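>> Question from a student workshop board

For tomorrow's exercise we were told to take the sequence and the ligand below, predict the bound structure, and bring the output to class. My setup keeps failing. Could a helper post the expected result so I can at least see what it should look like? The ligand is zinc ion.
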Amino acid sequence: MIENRLQALRALLEEQKLDAVVVTKEVNLYYFSGFRGDDTALVITADKALLVTDNRYTVQAAQQAPLFELVEQTEGLWTKVAETVKKLGCQRVGFEGGAMVFDTYHRLASLLTGVDFTTSLNLDALRTIKDEEEIRCIREACRIADAAFNDALTFIHAGVTEIEVAARLEQVMRQEGSEKPSFDTIVASGLRGSMPHGTATAKAIGTGEFVTMDFGAKYRGYCSDITRTIVVGHASDRQREVYDAVLDTQEKVLTQIRPGQKGYDIDHYARVNLQKYGLDQYFGHGLGHSLGLEIHEAAPRLAKRNSDTLLAPGMLVTDEPGVYIPEWGGLRIEDTVLVTATGCERLTTSAKKLIEIF
Ligand code: ZN
Ligand code: ZN
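>> Workshop helper replied:
Here is what the output should look like for this input. Compare the format with yours to find the bug.
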């Protein structure tokens, strides 16, 4: 798999007429080499692949990145990177403009006198379509999140705090094999449910309240993302009505996710569906995002803007409509979804029918 990724990267170098690229973004170090550490850079040319790091990481890098030649630095990463690039005789060198901070860019540029170091590359775009190994990891990350949700149903009751629920979700994910949460766990109950991104607080959950849990696991670097909303006690008629509208939208969206579709159109479809229930004005965020090594990846997106990427097999998106009503509360339902050759597959499979916990 690493071979294929390097091949795609080298095709980009050729297309951009570059002699080398310096890779610095942490997830891309991992993606292109297999190495999982920081303070490291890759220098990749048409026929060479070097990994520049320090002695904290040399043993680990030799194990994790067998296709790379190790270069140990003792006097600063950027000094060594510049020295390596010059030694290889590279004239035109690309970098990750979206990931390299201004000061680092300036430092490297000043060390690379005589080298054209002006081409910014978007290497994240090479990660848009996931390979089999990546899909396997995301599938496992989703299984772990599902297991945590099922456990939470046995744990939640009136009086327990949002933080306690978040801690329990995270503990179960760890026990199931996750390295860490894929983002800060969101648990929002009652009126707090009207905040789409309310991270857990010390608030105790009350009877009759919606509880929205948005969380995910990281497994071998890959993320899952799921949201479920439940009610503690009996759901009111209005709660049921709003919940069913969101669920209907979430499920109908799954019929629209397939190769050739544009994220813009699917997002629009979801809004039109919520409009039927008079709730579209309460849906303020985008319908979904892609994910993989990062919880939010740039493309594809199911949203009003930056969403004209055509969906293709191997892409991952979330399907997460929500309704947030000020002074009332809100809810969201979200699955991680894989685009397949003929449609899509839901990788998070927890139940979605409204659950009341007594
Ligand atoms: Zn989420
Ligand atoms: Zn999400």
